[in-house]
Amino acid sequence: MTGSGEQANDDQVPAWARKTAGESRWAATAAVVAIILIQYYLPSQFTLGPRLLIPGLGLALMLVLIAASPFRIDREEVWLRRASLFLTAVLSVAVAWSVDRLVIGLVDGSVSNDAAGLLVSGGAIWLTNVLVFGLAYWEFDRGGPAARAHARKQYPDFLFVQMQSPAAADPEWEPQFPDYLYLSFTNAAAFSPTDVMPMSRWAKFLMMIQSGISLITMSLVIARAINVLK
């Protein structure tokens, strides 16, 4: 009878608040691959170090993580967590460098006067910003994907609509990488939260940084492109 009661209680708890099988790795892996490809094909003036430095390091770390946990992210080994955070840090430094080079180039006039090339490069850097911050939100919310799979933390760092209105959501719903990517995209496009609310201070601070980067990048790139076209 006790086992049946515990099962009934588990069924009433939404998936995001209880232990689950763990999230599939492949959506986040696709985002990492996209960032690596963008970094490889960006003009050299916007990349950090030799062209293969960031793509090579990112690819090596990604393959290590895939080999250690190829399908679902549910292992909580310290070294895996550190490797995952290091990968996010490497990609974050790369996009920060790209934004810095783009802004400086726009301000001092050293960026190409080719409007189409400027828009393509600026758009690629903006997209990288969305992907990297999506990874960061995904990595840090409630301790990361593995910690979320084991329901280690009770309180969320990001409050999704499904958490606020559980009656209108599938009981098996839990936030996965596409949800964090959506959060990142809307924050970068609207420069503010939309339907996902940051709850912890670090989440608010990270969203504020992303909004600032997005605002500066979009405004300067568009203004420069319009000036070139004239």
What does this structure look like?
Helices cover 66% and strands 3% of the residues. The chain is globular, with a radius of gyration of 20 Å. The protein has one domain (20-229). The strands form 2 sheets. Strands 1-2 form a two-stranded antiparallel ribbon. Strands 3-4 form a two-stranded antiparallel sheet. The protein is mainly alpha-helical and 230 residues long. The protein has 9 helices and 4 strands. Mean pLDDT is 87; it is low at 4-8.
Q: What's the Cα radius of gyration? A: 20 Å
The number of distinct helices, counting runs of at least 4 residues, comes to 9
User: What portion of the residues fall into strands of 2 or more residues?
Assistant: under 5%
> Widest sheet: strand order?
1-2
In percent, how helical is the residue content?
55-70%
Name the shape in a single word: globular
State mean pLDDT (0 to 100 scale). Answer: 87
Q: Number of domains in the coordinates?
A: 1
Query: Got a strand count?
Result: 4
Assembly state:
single chain
How are the SSEs ordered, and which strands pair?
Blueprint: H1 2-12, E1 23-24, H2 26-41, H3 53-68, E2 72-73, H4 78-108, H5 115-140, H6 145-149, E3 158-159, H7 161-164, H8 177-190, E4 197-198, H9 201-229
Helix pairs in contact: 2-3, 2-5, 3-4, 4-5, 4-9, 5-8, 5-9, 8-9
